[in-house]
Amino acid sequence: MKPLLATAAIGCLIATAAALAGSVSTPFKVTIVRPPLAVTFSPASAKVPCDTKPGTVIATVKATGGNGNPVKPVLSGSTNFVLQGMNVVVAPAGVAAGDCPGKSEMVHVDATQ
Predict the structure, then answer these.
(1) Does residue 3 have a cis peptide bond before it, meaning omega lies within 30 degrees of 0?
(2) What is each CA distance from 38 to 21, 47, 59, 101, in whole angstroms?
(3) Alpha carbon of 14 to those of 2, 5, 9, 24, 44: distances in Å?
(4) Residue 50 lies in a domain
(5) Domain range enclosing 76
(6) 51 lies in a domain?
(7) Does the residue 30 lie in any domain?
(8) How far apart are CA 29 and CA 43, in angstroms?
(9) What is the separation of C-alpha 28 from the centre of its chain, rounded to a whole number of angstroms?
(10) Cα 61-67-73 angle, rounded to 5 deg
(11) Assigned domain for 74 exists
(12) Tens digit of pLDDT per residue, the chain (113 long)?
């Protein structure tokens, strides 16, 4: 009878090893997102002489991220500068004499897609 018990124990070990082998799967949710739309200026800041000619490019607006559609920029915060495409340029009237010299302006660009 002792050999029979040993055989039963070995059979149990083999069955356990077989039960551990195999594969399992479980779902894993991945949500792919677009990077947020961001706007920067190149250069990040500028000094503009009072006699800078209208249309002179002061900075380029750079947009990154978003949904891949064209960016629609809107400039606010200044009458001395306007947007031409993606460029901040000196306004057609030039820099206002009352803003010379030394005035600092915060030019804002909002971008949508």
Answers:
(1) no
(2) 50, 24, 16, 32
(3) 19, 14, 9, 20, 70
(4) yes
(5) 38-112
(6) yes
(7) no
(8) 41
(9) 25
(10) 30
(11) yes
(12) 444 444 444 444 555 555 567 888 999 999 988 999 999 999 999 999 999 999 999 999 999 999 989 999 999 999 999 999 999 999 999 999 999 887 889 999 999 99
